[in-house]
Amino acid sequence: MSDNPATPPVKSPDECQTMAEVRVGVDTTDRELVALLDRRFGYMRAAARIKPNREAVRDEDRKASVIAAAVLEAEARGIPADVVGDIWERLVEGSIAYELGEWDKTRI
After folding, report:
1. Which residues does the annotation say bind substrate (predicted)?
2. Which pTM value belongs to this model?
């Protein structure tokens, strides 16, 4: 629910009766996802600070594990696991690129 009276309340998907309600929910969820990505990229900055060398940034075993965990979570929730796998592939690759840039900024 929203604390701002000018902002329509966010209903759960099952409670939505209109497209306006759906859109409020989607827009709110998108803002929440960006906030979560902000936190995730903060962890990438921390990893760049902690890892001893640039070669340690790319870890293919860890990448595969992260993607597999997301796919399993999607399956458990009954959402399209193949779509989640594709999103996580892009997310992890983007995170690696970001972390490499952060690593370089702190050392080069």
Report:
1. 23, 40, 51, 99
2. 0.87
Residues in the annotated binding site for substrate? 23, 40, 51, 99
- 6 found inside a domain: no
Quick one: what percent of the chain has pLDDT higher than 90? 89
Q: Annotated binding residues, as ranges?
A: 23, 40, 51, 99
Check pLDDT > 70 for residue 5.
no
Backbone φ/ψ region at 13: left (φ over 0), alpha (ψ -120 to 50), beta: alpha
CA distance 62 to 58: 9
The token pair at 39 is 């936190």
Cα distances (angstroms) measured from residue 85 to each of 23, 68, 78, 91: 25, 8, 14, 10
Condensed to tens digits (0 to 9), the pLDDT of residues 51-95 reads 999 999 999 999 999 999 999 999 999 999 999 999 999 999 999
Domain count, the chain: 1
CATH number at residue 45: 1.20.59.10
In a domain, 74, yes or no: yes
pLDDT value at residue 7: 73
